[in-house]
Write a structure and sequence with these properties.
binds S-adenosylmethionine; 512 residues; SET_dom_sf; mainly alpha; set domain protein methyltransferase, domain 2; Putative histone-lysine N-methyltransferase chromatin remodeling SET family; protein-lysine N-methyltransferase activity
Length: 512
């Protein structure tokens, strides 16, 4: 009975929240139309409806933009005029107090300043010109800087834990540096907390778009409702690898002894055209968004924010993709492997498909060659050619063993993680008995630690608060488990790729 009443009030408050959200969204679209934001050539009462509509896409980003009609590839689908962009420039121009304070703290980075500006604007409440936009921002985020110790450790892999540690300490450091500015601006105490800072910096990290005149970028009302799809063009992807390869070849011709080359990865980025489908256009004076492909009416229209691995998506955007063509795994390599070739470290990885990268194969082939012969076969290795059947067999066995030992060093297996992921959503109540068939003892320990963690954090909270905290904490835990599962899946696939190659090579030997 108590549970039923509790459920009823939870559903009631959920319905009220939904009604409020719908009202907020209507206000945003009306305000946006007044600002000249439009998905069509003619201005109307609402800014959307001609090309796009706001919809909810379960499992694909939640709130997002759908096609209001069939859209053709390359069509302009949304225009957001410059004056509607939330930028440092537009904020400082509108507010003298803010402008004086910000100018007195010029050592802060452009991103730190934009983050403070966002908190300052939030502090104005309904009097802010941006209020209809601000009330539609998400209330919480799951970027890794928001991960607690439990979620961080749940990622299991050293590189990921290190990335989380770095993100958390960077956020703390940047927040402390801005305290004096926030004090000068007399921000309300709740807006000066680390929690508020995390919210604002996550907003900036996950929603800003590139503008040529400010490194911090801009918040783009309505334009920031596009969810993400990874750029998958094979040609771009392949080109990147070949460019890397050509540059390494250029370098090897000038390499003298052990000199190693550092490729200009930024140049590679700019050469690849950055793979985005929205940009600020000076002649139009607006941010313009184009359909990257053709869409059928009702389909979600997506934007490529850039090329990211799942760890990077988690770090900057707080989500990851089940199938991310740009995901990669870096396995720890012996220092001699790096020093025996001129490939940059970041090119030595395993693709999401399980295939070792071009550079990793080339580096291992060279490393597996006696040092006194490396110079004479270097040009073949850098061209991506096999050096000999024996060399290739050694390399394939080495990679397969490396993937195996990397996985064995992690606390749980791929199968255990898959099972854990399938039961995480069933952990609805921190006090309910644990009855999950087939879950391993290590995973049961992890579930118990999760529950103890939620209970400890919510010691002084009401039931409703504990339930809310549990949901948020569970979402972050799920992201951590999903991430490590994706990592292990790549290793498992790589072992299959190598084992198949070993089989083919062995049959070649037996036939010769
Ligand atoms: C620019 S906003 C997009 C709109 C956002 N869904 C909203 O409701 O405001 C970016 C955020 O949307 C979510 N998101 C975008 N694409 C996603 C995807 N493919 N899968 C899951 N979440 C996604 C992530 O939370 C990300 O930080």
């Amino acid at each position: 009975m108590v549970a039923t009443l509790y459920d009823q009030s939870w559903h009631q408050s959920k319905r009220l929240n939904m009604e409020q959200e719908e009202g907020n969204l209507e206000r945003l679209l009306k305000w946006a139309a007044e600002c000249g934001i439009s998905d069509s050539k003619c201005r109307g009462l609402s800014c959307l409806g001609h090309s796009l509509v706001v919809s909810y896409f379960h499992g694909a980003g939640g709130r997002g933009l759908g096609a209001a009609r069939d859209l053709e590839k390359g069509e302009l689908v949304l225009k957001v005029p410059k004056w509607a962009l939330f930028t440092r420039e537009s904020l400082l121009l509108k507010d003298d107090q803010l402008s004086v304070a910000v100018n007195a703290h010029s050592s802060l980075s452009s991103t730190q300043t934009l983050t403070v500006c966002l908190l300052y604007e939030m502090g104005k409440g309904k009097t802010s010109w941006w209020h209809p936009y601000l009330i539609n921002l998400p209330r919480s985020y799951d970027i890794i800087a928001t991960f607690g110790e439990f979620e961080k450790q749940a990622m299991q892999v050293d590189d990921a834990i290190w990335a989380a540690d770095k993100a958390i300490s960077k956020a703390e450091f940047e927040w402390k540096e801005t305290n004096a500015l926030m004090e000068q601006l007399k921000l309300k105490p709740q807006l000066r907390t680390f929690r508020a800072w995390l919210w604002a910096s996550a907003t900036v990290s996950s929603r800003t778009m590139h503008i040529p005149w400010d490194g911090a970028g801009c918040l783009c009302p309505v334009g920031d409702l596009f969810n993400y799809s990874a750029p998958v063009e094979e040609s771009d992807f392949e080109n990147m690898e070949h460019r890397t390869h050509d540059l390494a070849l250029q370098d090897i011709s000038t390499v003298n002894g052990e000199t190693s080359c550092i490729l200009d990865m930024e140049q590679l980025d700019s050469d690849s055209g950055r793979l985005t489908d929205g940009r600020f256009e000076n002649d139009v004076g607006a941010y313009c968004f184009y359909a990257k492909k053709s869409y059928r009416k009702g389909e979600q229209v997506l934007l490529s924010y850039g090329t990211y691995t799942n760890l990077e998506l988690l770090e900057h955007y707080g989500f990851l993709l089940n199938e991310n063509p740009n995901d990669k795994v870096f396995v720890p390599l012996e220092p001699e492997i790096y020093s025996s070739c001129s490939w940059p470290k970041e090119s030595l990885y395993i693709h999401q498909s399980g295939k070792p990268s071009f550079a990793l194969l080339s580096a291992l082939r060279l490393w597996a060659t006696p040092a006194n012969r490396r110079r004479s076969v270097g040009h073949l290795a850098y061209s991506g050619l096999q050096l000999s059947v024996e060399n290739e067999l050694f390399v394939m066995r080495w990679i397969s063993n490396k993937c195996n030992s990397t996985m064995k060093n992690l606390p749980t297996t791929f199968e255990e993680d898959s099972l854990l992921l399938s039961v995480i959503d069933k952990i609805q109540n921190v006090n309910a008995p644990l009855e999950f068939a087939n879950v391993s003892s290590v995973s049961t320990d992890e579930i118990c630690t999760f529950r103890a963690n939620v209970l400890k954090k919510g010691e002084t909270d009401s039931k409703t608060l504990v339930s809310g905290k549990m949901q948020r904490s569970r979402e972050r835990w799920k992201l951590a488990v999903k991430w490590r599962l994706g990592y292990k899946k790549i290793l498992v696939d790589c072992i299959s790729v190598c084992d198949e190659m070993i089989r083919v090579l062995c049959s070649q030997i037996s036939h010769s």
